[in-house]
Amino acid sequence: MTVHIAGLDVTVSDHLRQRCAWCGILLVDQDLTAVAVPAGTEDRPFPRWPSNALVVVEGGASALLPVPPMGVLPVGTCVDQVTPAPDVPR
Ligand SMILES: [Zn+2]
Questions:
Q1: Number of folded domains that form the chain
Q2: If you measure from the C-alpha of residue 62 to the centroid of ligand 1, how many angstroms do you get, rounded to a whole number?
Q3: Structural domain of residue 54, as residue ranges?
Q4: Which end of the chain is more exposed for a tag (fewer CB within 10 A), N or C?
Q5: Ligand 1 centre distance from Cα of residue 73 (Å)
């Protein structure tokens, strides 16, 4: 079990991706043309995590965690396991 921090979701053409803002793991990777939806709901967006939400991932399952007090991350976050990426040269 690892807790990630949802980054911004990005849709390019018919593909949606959302990565962890810290470690970059894919939280959502969906070909939107492969999604079947009930008639009349075609205009509803495919589900994604709110930006900055804490998402616990275990195996193929994931769930939203409640927001902890400011500045306190739960045990088991990727922040404790991954060194942040270096700055991108400008
Ligand atoms: Zn992460």
A1: 1
A2: 12
A3: 2-80
A4: C
A5: 12
